[in-house]
Q: What sequence folds into this?
């Protein structure tokens, strides 16, 4: 019986250590991200969103709203990543799919560029190679 109590104590210690370490890892990762500037350069469609980044990676969440009476399809969201000195680091494209009239759709994309300080989003007809 004494041996079972000892094993139970060790099991509780291992499970407790695992839970504490997972919580601390989550807190360290989520607090490392900072908000960066998100700008929409689209004149026709409404793009709203937010961007967060660390030194080496980040993610962008954006919402596209179609205020027109026609279905939006066959277009892409072009996302440009810039440094503090407005140097273009890279570009990503997200296929929109289809958005109905007066409807909106949410998108999320992650990136792996160093020292991103601002993001610009626009709606384009095709991917540039």
A:
């Amino acid at each position: 019986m004494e041996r079972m109590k000892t094993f139970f104590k060790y099991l509780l210690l291992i499970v407790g250590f695992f839970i504490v370490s997972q919580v601390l890892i989550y807190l360290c990762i989520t607090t490392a991200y900072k908000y960066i500037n998100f700008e929409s350069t689209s004149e026709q469609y409404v793009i709203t969103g937010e961007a967060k980044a660390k030194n080496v990676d980040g993610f962008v969440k954006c919402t596209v709203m179609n205020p027109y009476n026609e279905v939006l399809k066959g277009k892409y969201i072009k996302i440009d990543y810039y440094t503090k000195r407005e140097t273009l680091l890279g570009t990503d494209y997200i296929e929109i799919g289809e958005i109905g009239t007066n409807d909106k759709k949410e998108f999320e994309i992650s990136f792996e560029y160093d020292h991103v300080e601002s993001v610009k989003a626009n709606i384009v007809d095709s991917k540039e190679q």
